[in-house]
Amino acid sequence: MPDIQTRPPASSADGALKRNALGTGGIAFLVISAAAPLTVMAGVAPVAINVGGIGAPAGYLLAGIVLTLFAVGFMAMTRHVKAAGGFYTYISLAMGKTAGLASAILAIVSYNCLQIGVYGLFAVQTHDMLKVVFGLEVPWPAIALAAVAAVWLLGYRGIDVGAKVLGVLLVAETGILALMAAGILGSGGAHGISVGSFSPENAFGPGVLAILGICFAAFMGFESTVLYRSEARDPDRSVPRATYVAVGFMSVFYAFIVWAVVQAYGEDRAVEAAGELAGGMFFQTINHYVGPWAEVAMYFLIVTSVYASQLAFHNAINRYVYMLARDGVLPAFLGRTHPKFKSPHRAGQLQTILAAVVITICALLNADPYQQLLIWVNTPGIFGIVGLQGLVSVAAFLYLRRNPDAVTHRLMVPLSLASAILLFGVVLLIGFNIELLTFADALTNTILILVTPIVFIAGLLAARWVRRHRPETFAQIGSFETHEP
Fold this sequence. Notes:
Blueprint: H1 24-35, H2 37-52, H3 56-80, H4 87-95, H5 97-134, H6 140-157, H7 159-186, H8 200-203, H9 206-210, H10 212-217, H11 235-265, H12 270-277, H13 281-289, H14 292-326, H15 345-364, H16 369-402, H17 412-432, H18 435-438, H19 442-469, H20 471-476
GO molecular function: transmembrane transporter activity
Keywords: Cell membrane, Membrane, Transmembrane, Transmembrane helix
InterPro entries: AA/rel_permease1, APC_superfamily
């Protein structure tokens, strides 16, 4: 098995991350929170039902199956590659340092698109909550900038503090969705309980294929488990466990909740109701089946759901920047951690400033916080992450072919290849159905699609420049290790 270049272990004074700060549960909370279950259900699932029909719940299961295949090869590599660089390290090892650095740049841009864009959703949801519950009218830029400060504060305090907060928020947001489902099923739904959503004609219909991009977007961030390897307890076990827990929980839970909402209106009325009610569908459903108090609680919890997502993505971005700085690609000061909290606070400060600048520009341009800031900024991030998952599957296939001792089951290699083919197929499906995500004109959609390949090509050119002009730095690409005892 090839060795990754290493350098001496970093001492605490030299900027190491906090050791043994996270177990399986803490890592799982971080990555599930990034997906914002309540937000993707209440805010986006009605679109999936309206377009995909009553088979929409199956779309989430299909996405979960594909991502589980992806996780097989991904986790096989992480058991043998003691590195915490995420996509960056794995692609560097199996496909070369040039592709690795380009992937790292694409990952940072994609995660930033997801994180910064969601501040628009946070602003909209918080504005609505303050108006409905308290009768207050607060400008959306003020809300978004306040959220930027709140996310920075918890990220600054360290990963263990953030994981505890995310754990509480995640339990609350999944709890309110489970309560709604219990109310629906306990009342027998609109016309009794049916499993027609999972029949072959509904589960594999053209509508479900069209919404796969929406379904995959609901899992964004689950793959970032490997970024926390340096801070994990027993990472060889906790990281794979957290990955499978995250993807398994989300796929089953999403499918169950969407299926329950279909039952709330009946299979003959659910699609029409999703079109009429849109983002208000879940709120009206919980009001009817549980009570007005639960609707008010959902308004509060959807705000905390978005905040939890912001914090999780903030942590992931900071660790990518930190790893690149430790490998010498980015300025060294970004690879330093806080002397007390052991958080990559320098990287966090940079990401916070970037988010504040983008929000301020959007406010000055009078941009719509939902359409322009959330949807348009998020879309390249979705393309980028799913595309990177496909590249990691290729990397896993190549690595496992070259290193038979890493293969613990004969199906690992073909499953990695299958996941690569499926994930690149999903990228194409998202592109063909991009209007379902953006509701934009053809020119805007074309620009949003082109962002990902342009960033990746720019990354390849940057890597070639580094190889030519900074060969010592190029040799360190993808070399950062956890140096576990």
